[in-house]
Amino acid sequence: MSKTSALKFCLLLFAISFGVRVLVWQNNKVEMAGVQWGLTELYRNDAKYLSTGEFRLFLAGPNPPSDATVLLHPPGYPIFIGINYLSWGENEAFVIAQILLNSLAPLLIFLIALLLFDARVAMISGVLTALAPQFAYHSSVMLPDELAVLPILAALYFFVRAIRDGKLSMAVLCGVSIGLSCWFRSNALILPLFFAAFSLLLLPKHIRIRFAVTLVASFVLVIAPITIRNYIVFDSFIPLSLGMGTTFIEGLGDYDRTGSLGMPSTDFGVMAMDAQLANRPDYNAGGLLHPDGVLRERRRLRTGLAVVADNPGWYLKSVLHRASTSFRMERVPAIAPERNEFDTTPQPLYFLNRPLKFIQRGFVTATILPLFLLGLVLLIVTPEDRFKIAILAIVPLYYATVQSLIHTEYRYFLPTSHILMIFCAVFLSFVVGKLPHFSPKIQPY
Predict the structure, then answer these.
(1) CB–CB of 311/305 below 8 Å?
(2) 359-369 in b/e burial notation, b at 16+ Cβ within 10 A?
């Protein structure tokens, strides 16, 4: 595939991706406004501090260090919203900007697959990513999850480029990309170590160690401003954000079906637990990180680790179960087959809803998981393609192990779901290649 042809396809892919995401947003706008409402209000408030010039409140919150609510999330997403508020006002324009950026994900998947496979696999991968309802839905919700996927995909692209070209500059771009993702969500905090470990296995010997060190150093430099802010304002070493203790506790609570371990599964339950353990009724009324946010978060982590130490077999079982769910496809709200009082889709575009909904029905676990496994088998039985499994496994392996140790929601596993599209495309390309009128050979990029 020539560079000109690749560019033309990227433009077409972007148009498809953007159109699908806009349609999904228009059809689900009312419901999307209520998703994680409490969290989205925190993002809005922080963005308003920034857009109105209240930089001290944006950086430290109203009452540091006791009130550590500002540390519930990294500052990247409020900065993104705040910039849009400054540019367009406090309206839905930031959603369009978010959709535009998220529409680049299929392009990155296409480019990764194009480096590893032939043009047919790359094109199918890109189209699958553009049409998947899960990605379209999360692209429009007022949460940073899909935005955080983009830099991770970029990191994988630069990693593949490093394997192909052996350039140390790719290590810098890879580390910077993962760091940028952590400005939006802290889930990828340890991901650079996985990339570094795989670089020691896959890269040429003369560059392996330098690549790994450069990648990790670049990542650390990118997140350093957040870490420094946290240390200065809250007098604690907090690399990105607080919340792992809360998430850890709630993850244990989700699997404590009988309630015998006393682990809460909701934020309100966590606050009640704090109040009981410390004999502080005000903990139950203030918030997750107010008052004494840092102290309480560390106590939650110790409490969770104590439960794990007392129930190692039960915990291992829960981790394995969570890891298995990392390959599922979430069922997101469908596009309505008929117009209703809440439908905001413009009339001229409504005729696209029916075919799009028909296509998106196929993006369920019962379809995607078998395609993924079949694609994986094809790569395993092809000796020259086996090393590609290791490359594509870096991100899914990280989320299936590290993330599963803490807690799992589908939006945490979005990077894995994107990469599954490449495995699916490997098998679909194999099937297409067996059809008589698709028999001409397609050369690698």
Answers:
(1) no
(2) ebeebeeeebe
CB 195 within 8 A of CB 159: yes
Contact 151, 180 (CB under 8 A): yes
Q: pTM, whole model, 2 decimals?
A: 0.92
Q: Return the domain boundaries, the chain.
A: 3-146+238-438
172: pLDDT strictly greater than 70: yes
**DSSP 8-state symbol, 406:** T
Distance (Å, whole) CA 170 – CA 159: 7
| Cα–Cα dist 277/298, whole Å | 13
Q: Where does 54-168 have alpha helices with state H? A: 55-60, 76-88, 93-102, 105-116, 119-131, 133-140, 145-165
Q: How many CA atoms lie within 13 A of 146 on its CB side?
A: 26
What are φ and ψ of residue 444, in 5° steps? -65, 160
Per the CB < 8 A criterion, the answer to whether 147 and 164 are in contact is no
Q: Which amino acid does the sequence have at 308? A: V
Distances (CA, A) of 24 to 32, 126, 165, 345, 390: 10, 18, 39, 9, 34
**Residue 1 in this model has a pLDDT that exceeds 90:** no
Is the separation of the CB atoms in 71 and 238 below 8 Å? yes
Asked whether the predicted pLDDT for residue 131 surpasses 90, the reply is: yes
CA quadruple 368, 404, 194, 135: dihedral positive or negative?
A: positive
Gyration radius from the chain CA atoms? 23
- Rounded CA-CA distance 136/143 in Å is 13
What is d(CA 403, CA 186) in angstroms, rounded to the nearest whole number?
11
Sign of the C-alpha dihedral, residues 100, 181, 70, 281?
A: positive
Listed as own residue / partner, the contacts of 208-212 with beta carbons closer than 8 Å and 24 or more positions apart are 210/168, 210/171, 211/162, 211/168, 211/170, 211/171, 212/171
Q: Given this model, what pLDDT does residue 239 score? A: 94
pLDDT number for residue 342: 55
How confident is the prediction for the chain on average, in pLDDT?
90
Under the banding of pLDDT at 50, 70 and 90, the label for residue 208 is: very high
